[in-house]
Amino acid sequence: MTTSFEALLPGTERALLHRVAVAQAEGRAPSLVGAVVRDGALVWSGARSCVDGHVPDADTQFRIGSITKVFTAVLVMRLRDEGVLRLDDPLELHLKGTGVGEVTIAQLLGHSGGLAAETPGAWWERSSAALRPELSDVLGERPFLRTPGRRHHYSNPGYTLLGCLVEELRGRPWEEALRREILEPLGMDRTTAYPVAPHAGGWAVHPWADVMLPEPSEDLGLMAPAGQLWSTAADLARFAAFLAEGDEQVLDAASVAEMRAPASPGGEGEWEGGYGLGLQLLRRDGRTLIGHTGSLPGFVACLWVSVEDGLAGIALSNATSGPLVGAVAADLVRIVAEAEPRLPEPWRPLPEAEVDEEPLSLTGPWYWGTYVYGLRLGPGRGVVLEPLRGAGRQARFRALPDGGWVGLNGYYEGETLRVVRRPDGSVSHLDLGSFVFTREPYEPGDAVPGGVDEAGWRGL
Fold it and tell me: For 49-73, how does the pLDDT look when each residue is reduced to its tens digit (9 = 90+)?
């Protein structure tokens, strides 16, 4: 008999609703929507509101602030995958006359370009875009706070530059490129640059009294690629599935995985995590979360994805401050992961076409000096090298067309693993970035750099 696990258990749903209810009450939020994605599907959503009969749902729009940056980053990665640009290209190569052209595209994506966090002049989130009609108005006379590439420093103007880069290379407005290249392919028809009913209104809640004040909703103009979008829990669920698995219509799985990898560390005193290429990275409750937080006057939002657990948590609220949506979204993931842990995939043998006698003969123990490693076959004719005792450098390798393998992760990422043979064709050793791995530890006659003592092993 096959059991469906698409729906959550009633006890899990009760715990999720309780977390949302506590967040709305303790955060003194006009309303708060939470949602959970499991294995690419929206499996739960719940909400609380201060107005009886007017509880938002997964189709109600909220402004998502800096979650917008992830969409902008995807547009840039698409250009990279098409060969239009390289991530280490200086901005000036594609976008002339900015005055900050030595900054690379990768540095802008990862907020390590040394640019200021905000624009000069009036608070851009609460003022008219007419005050910033040109890039020079966004960057100001002193755009750099530090040397590019040295450390992470979050920069909203940096994402204005990336949005302008997309417009320059696509020959169309950022918003149109976003709709054509991401929103339509992913079926996100409730994600828009401007609010479309039903949508929440933005509110400020007095810090010392239970009273509220409506917040303005400004068009951000040139700053739009940094925080303009409105979206729903249901639409962000679709985006979460994309961030976990990729989508060939938008960005393949390998490129999305590249976005999730650390590109710059968090700055001193900042949250425990880092930043990828347009994605925040967080370690919480023993798991890695990727996604982004967002805020604009009247709204806070968060999307966290645990790729390993196949889960995502979403929290949206229409309050300038109060509800800790980042913690809520992370807790929604934790509640489901702990109550209903993901079932492992059934073990299956490799496909017959991927089994080759030669690499199969290389499996088993290998010695780097006296450190013992095990080599085993992986999917797609790849191999995995991992320590058999104690700590060490585990690495996955992809097969190369002309023989050998290239490292995919960790210390050996990009390094080549190859088989070195003797004149008679027998295997002498494995060479991994000049490190020699032999079948026995320091066997006489082995190709160990520096040679092996002729007297061999001895006791005291």
Answer: 999 888 999 999 999 999 999 999 9
b/e burial code for range 422-432 (CB count within 10 A of at least 16 → b): eeeeeebbbbb
Residues 6+ apart with CB under 8 A from 337: 287, 306, 309, 311
Report the candidate in 303, 295, 293 with the shortest Cα–Cα distance to residue 320: 295
Supply the pTM of this predicted model: 0.90
Query: In this structure, is the dihedral angle defined by the CA atoms of residues 11, 12, 17 and 19, taken in order, positive or negative?
Result: positive
Which residue is it, tokens 């950022």? 174
Residues 6+ apart with CB under 8 A from 15: 335, 339
Element (H, E) at 62: strand 62-63
User: Cβ(289)–Cβ(240) under 8 Å?
Assistant: no
Q: Report CA torsion sign: 433, 434, 435, 440.
A: positive
Give the separation between CA 9 and CA 397, rounded to whole angstroms: 39
DSSP 362: T
Q: What is the pLDDT of residues 173-228, one digit of tens each?
A: 999 999 999 999 999 999 999 999 999 999 999 999 999 999 999 999 999 999 99
Q: Which residues partner with 419 through β-bridges?
A: 430
Instruction: Please tell me the distance from the alpha carbon of residue 347 to that of residue 96, in angstroms, as a whole number.
Output: 54
Q: At what angle do helices 68-81 and 253-260 cross, to 10 degrees?
A: 130
- Which residues lie below 8 Å from residue 328, measured CB to CB, with a gap of 6+? 19, 20, 23, 32, 34, 302, 313, 315
**DSSP three-state, residue 25:** helix
Are 243 and 70 spatial neighbours (Cβ–Cβ below 8 Å)? yes
